[in-house]
Amino acid sequence: MPTVTDLTHLTAAQMADGLAAGEFTSVELTQAHLDRIAALNPVLNAFLQVDTDGALATAADVDSRRAAGEDLPRLAGVPIAVKDIACTQGIPTTAGSKTLEGWIPPYDATIVTRLKDAGMPILGKTNMDEFAMGSSTEHSAFGPTRNPWDLDRIPGGSGGGSSAAVAAFLAPLAIGSDTGGSIRQPGAVTGTVGAKPTYGGVSRYGVIALASSLDQIGPCARTITDAALLHEVIGGHDPMDSTSIDAPVPHLVAAVESGKSRDLTGTRIGIVRELTGEGYQAGVQARFDESVELLRQAGAEIVEVSCPHFQYAMAAYYLILPSEASSNLARYDAMRYGLRVGPDGVDAPSAEQVMAASRDAGFGDEVKRRIILGTYALSSGYYDAYYGQAQKVRTLIARDFEAAFEQADVLISPTAPTTAFKIGDKMEDPMAMYLNDIATIPANLAGIPGLSLPSGVADEDGLPVGIQILAPATQDQRMYAVGAALEALLAKQWGGSGSVLDRAPDVAATASNGSVTGAVSEEAK
Amino acid sequence: MSELSRDDVAHVAMLARIQLTDEELDRLAGQLDQIVGWVGQINEVAADDVPPMSHPLPLTNVTRADEVRPSLTAEQALANAPASELDRFSVPRILDEE
């Protein structure tokens, strides 16, 4: 019988195999994760809600169906965490906002229904930047999540809770959402794998909207195989989402299997000139160069491509996102749900006054900043100069990608310009925070898929570094195949289990040493 | 290029139905002015002949058959309401008293 630690440290694929072979039950597996969450979440603050009863009930159900000889989906019995942006019937869902504190959705998001249909116990809901606005999970109304590699550092954002949970073995898999890099960048700074599918590849029905033309749901995992397994569960057409692609999910797991042992001769890999070099931390650049060399040695043809309009991607993104967000977040009007407070000293206030007071009390600084910026960009007299112009830039970015994909099958870059920064370091400087997403944002503007996998640790600080692989729209299998090839090359070079997480400090030991500065609860608003 | 004043921010906040405190206004006005100046760089890209791209996918309306389907009960729909009475949402006054 494996120990608790052994169970939580398996990959999701190994868990699925172990369950199928009867080596352990889903109840044992789920309980092992719940125990680890109970021990470490007070320090990490990765989960906002833990659904112990629900997770164990699903696990017991899967165990009895398996015992009865039922043919079950591959991941049946493997537990999962869900970013608090997806609606879960009966389980509070907040999107990291005080506005939605205590809100209990009366329905499930389509992805949650698919997890349930696949027999996956849902451990709980993970912490995130409020309404997914941020790159550090410091903008959660419920306190920051801590990076398991260094508790004084950020786990990335906005999906820092999901990535930290996966990195610290609180969950083998998690759901994330990526509007400008919120799956890939947290993956990079926590040493895990994160994939943003092609826009429309995974249903967004029941997912709290940030910027509808950019938002994409995707998997957080520790291996490329695990990410592909989860992607296949949640992907595919959904008639409830008008932006859902009406085509079957690509064969991603098969692509990973073929990629693992693939000779890369004939594969053209493009380095985006604008996404490397200046502005990138030395250790990040060094790990990137090393991965490129491994790919070259494995037979890939490395070409340099230029995407000249990427220099305007950040600015266009920070107009388009707030504009769409200001519209999407208009629904938080304190009338039908959400926080309602009256303005001070007003008898019988009007609906308008209650709305304004409630939105001031319910939204954090970053959300207010972006709503006001978006409202400004959409306002009369400024629309053409800002929002309209940003949409033209979006066309130029998409054309840059088209030209680049004529020269290369996939594109690669570092996922984030630096390793995880310290909690609090960029809170007062929104511009500095925004620049962290420089490499991930172009993919959201164009709707193409992107994936981040660990490429090692930076020499100067020992913190994990991610490498990003981008593919043309609907060619998700291509990025998984190249990702699997690179993962295998890196694993061979690193030895051991081949996982960068082998080099992470033992978070359980660090937590019990009390070396973390300031308890999470003290920082929670 | 940007000149977003404190008054402009207060006006836009009012349009967005966010009542800011004086202290929030002071802080946000400075930050927003900097951000608006920075995003203004997109006007450097000469793009009169470039069509705007609003969405990565061509969008079509999705319709469904006009048939009765199960829906939320009144109790479920009102469960998260800040206030309700007689199976209805209870809201602050919408019209002026005059």
Automatic annotation (TrEMBL), chain A:
InterPro entries: Amidase, Amidase_CS, Amidase_dom, AS_sf, GatA
EC number(s) on file: 6.3.5.7
The keyword Protein biosynthesis is assigned to this record: yes
Segments forming domain Amidase: 28-478
Keywords, ordered alphabetically: ATP-binding, Ligase, Nucleotide-binding, Protein biosynthesis
Keyword Magnesium set for record: no
Gene3D superfamilies, per the entry: Amidase signature (AS) domain (3.90.1300.10)
SUPFAM superfamilies for this protein: Amidase signature (AS) enzymes
Recorded superkingdom: Bacteria
Annotated catalytic residues: 83 (charge relay system), 158 (charge relay system), 182 (acyl-ester intermediate)
Enzyme type, top EC level: ligase
Reaction catalysed by this enzyme: L-glutamyl-tRNA(Gln) + L-glutamine + ATP + H2O = L-glutaminyl-tRNA(Gln) + L-glutamate + ADP + phosphate + H(+)
Record family assignment: Belongs to the amidase family. GatA subfamily.
Its biological purpose: Allows the formation of correctly charged Gln-tRNA(Gln) through the transamidation of misacylated Glu-tRNA(Gln) in organisms which lack glutaminyl-tRNA synthetase. The reaction takes place in the presence of glutamine and ATP through an activated gamma-phospho-Glu-tRNA(Gln).
Complexes and interactors: Heterotrimer of A, B and C subunits.
Protein name, per record: Glutamyl-tRNA(Gln) amidotransferase subunit A
Taxon lineage: Bacteria, Bacillati, Actinomycetota, Actinomycetes, Micrococcales
Automatic annotation (TrEMBL), chain B:
Assigned EC number: 6.3.5.-
Catalytic activity reported: L-aspartyl-tRNA(Asn) + L-glutamine + ATP + H2O = L-asparaginyl-tRNA(Asn) + L-glutamate + ADP + phosphate + 2 H(+); L-glutamyl-tRNA(Gln) + L-glutamine + ATP + H2O = L-glutaminyl-tRNA(Gln) + L-glutamate + ADP + phosphate + H(+)
Keywords per UniProt: ATP-binding, Ligase, Nucleotide-binding, Protein biosynthesis
Subunit structure: Heterotrimer of A, B and C subunits.
Recorded family membership: Belongs to the GatC family.
NCBIfam families: gatC (TIGR00135)
UniProt function note: Allows the formation of correctly charged Asn-tRNA(Asn) or Gln-tRNA(Gln) through the transamidation of misacylated Asp-tRNA(Asn) or Glu-tRNA(Gln) in organisms which lack either or both of asparaginyl-tRNA or glutaminyl-tRNA synthetases. The reaction takes place in the presence of glutamine and ATP through an activated phospho-Asp-tRNA(Asn) or phospho-Glu-tRNA(Gln).
The protein's name in its UniProt record: Aspartyl/glutamyl-tRNA(Asn/Gln) amidotransferase subunit C
Organism: Ornithinimicrobium faecis
Gene behind this protein: gatC
